[in-house]
Design a protein that fits this description.
With 476 residues, this protein is mainly beta. The protein has one domain: 7 Propeller (Methylamine Dehydrogenase, Chain H). 6% of the residues lie in helices and 37% in strands. It contains four helices and 33 strands. A five-stranded antiparallel sheet has the order 1-14-13-12-11, with no helix packed on it. Strands 2-33-32-31 form a four-stranded antiparallel sheet. A hairpin with a 4-residue loop joins strand 8 and strand 9. The radius of gyration is 20 Å and the shape is globular. Keywords: Signal. It holds the Pfam family PQQ_2. InterPro entries: PQQ_b-propeller_rpt (IPR018391), PQQ_rpt_dom (IPR002372), Quinoprotein_ADH-like_sf (IPR011047), WD40/YVTN_repeat-like_dom_sf (IPR015943).
């Protein structure tokens, strides 16, 4: 999601966003809200059977698929869904896929479940609260949150509400990820000032995944944006705040194990990633707001930290803002692990968006895909869809990242959506470090941009991705 400076101006012109008072966050870094934390078997039993259990895939190798996805997107396009009242009747955000290849879609007006052929099986309406985050699947339940401060769980089979807990007055209109493991659900909440970029979620809340009872809360040094917690080891998780500072937290207690990095006063809607090499990768912009959003060439930093103790291993300067979470995995025709990093300054006419791939061990640049440039005042689908969304009572525009979050399939192909509407499949077939031509670039025009919580989801023979207004499915 874009910086609030332009967003606030546009929203004021549209008369669509209202401010609400937020409850105060607790001053301590973390606090216990129950005497005893839920006891469960530690592991990923609740998500292991699903093909794509969260908006970023499955523990432990997030954003990396176990199956190949179709490269030729135009030939393998199978079906799409948009709201029956029209493309612009809602905003669509994140996807998950269960063990039977059913697809779950979060949207501003609620959550929907489809079978793999496109038949809607159920829907959970949420308005006037909006569901901004990508959902997670765990032990027969789907987990999400809404802008009225609720975290909720739905029965995956029926869509019935199993529990709903209000953890704050508000949860932000950014695009994050609800994540669950070991019987504990995580959500960012308490949307208010201060932050380096207006209102933001001030704290992290943990809940009992079975009952919705609050367990503990953690308040980072700087608020979070597009919150993306990634589980590591037997009982911990990592995340970054909007300044790029990384935290490793004990999942059972909320206790801080270490924190590292970041640049105070800066903002990014990027996130962190974890590799199987025991390294966590984080991003930050190098200049404070609003200076950071004035140029497409405003630099950022990609940093690698030892997962055990937070020690900095390396950092490199990116030539454009790193405004989404990277993916870490094996990329086609490259040895070892790579970091796939989308770079773009969104909502900037004429700005070019690139995808860079770096060596995960050294930070060395491996290949570049030069994407399209932004042609309009807003990104694809935003301006033309504003009247319809206003009529439906949802957020008037997506105001997304320059790129979706990337996914790497089992063959090392990179899948990522761009703000100008194209959904891309990318691979370096000839190994020359430049991604170009029909053998290396496949594109499908969705006619809309992609939110920060949109991450291509892969199942056997199936690829699903949400643009800002529709769900698209491709099949081998």
């Amino acid at each position: 999601m874009q910086s609030t400076s332009l967003a606030a101006l546009l929203c004021a012109l549209a008369h669509t966003l209202a401010t609400e008072d937020c409850q105060d966050a607790e001053s301590a870094g973390f606090s216990f809200l129950q005497a005893h934390v839920v006891t469960t078997s530690r592991g990923s039993e609740g998500e292991a059977q699903h093909h794509w259990a969260s908006g970023r895939g499955n523990f432990p190798e997030y954003a990396v698929a176990k199956h190949p996805a179709p490269f030729n997107l135009a030939e393998t396009f199978a079906w799409e869904w948009h709201h029956p009242l029209g493309r612009f009747a809602t905003l669509t955000y994140g996807t998950a896929i269960d063990a039977e290849s059913n697809i779950y879609l979060s949207a501003a007006d609620g959550v929907r479940k489809f079978d793999q052929h496109g038949k809607m099986l159920w829907e959970y309406p949420s308005l006037p609260a909006e569901v901004m985050n990508a959902p997670s699947l765990y032990n027969g339940l789907l987990y999400g949150s809404d802008t009225h401060g609720h975290v909720f769980a739905l029965d995956m089979q029926t869509g019935n509400l199993m529990w709903k807990t209000r953890v704050a007055e508000n949860i932000g209109q950014d695009n994050g990820f609800n994540m669950v493991r070991a019987g504990i659900a995580l959500a960012a909440c308490d949307w208010r000032k201060p932050s380096p970029n207006g209102e933001a979620n001030q704290r992290i809340q943990a809940l009992n995944a079975s009952t919705g009872d609050e367990l503990w809360m953690f308040k980072p040094d700087t608020p979070v944006w597009n919150f993306l917690p990634l589980f590591v080891g037997d009982n911990d998780f990592v995340f970054q705040d909007m300044s790029g500072k990384v935290y490793r937290i004990n999942l059972s207690t909320g206790a801080l194990l270490w924190k590292a990095g970041g640049r105070n006063g800066t903002w990014t809607d990027g996130g962190s990633a974890v590799g199987p090499n025991n390294v966590v990768y984080a991003v930050n912009n190098n200049h404070p707001m609003p200076q950071a959003s004035t140029s497409e060439y405003s630099p950022g930093t990609l940093s690698a930290y030892n997962l055990t103790d937070g020690q900095l291993l390396w950092s490199i300067t990116t030539p454009r803002p790193p405004n989404n979470a990277p993916a870490v995995g094996r990329v086609k025709n490259l040895e070892g692990l790579s970091v796939v990093m989308p770079l773009c300054q969104q909502v900037h006419i004429g700005a070019t968006c690139d995808v860079h791939v770096y060596d995960a061990e050294t930070g060395g640049l491996r290949w570049i895909f030069h994407g399209p440039t932004q042609t309009g005042l807003l990104q694809a689908g935003d301006m033309e869809g504003a009247p319809g969304r206003l009529m439906r009572g949802v957020r008037w525009a997506c105001l997304p990242n320059g790129w979706s979050a990337p996914t790497i399939d089992a063959e090392g192909t990179v899948f990522v959506g761009n703000e100008e509407g194209n959904f891309y499949a990318l691979k370096d077939t000839d190994g020359n470090g430049v991604i170009w031509g029909k053998d290396e670039v496949a594109a499908f025009d969705t006619k809309a941009s992609f939110s920060g919580s949109s991450s291509p989801a892969v199942a056997p023979g199936l690829l699903a991705v949400a643009s800002c207004d529709s769900l698209f499915v491709f099949k081998h």
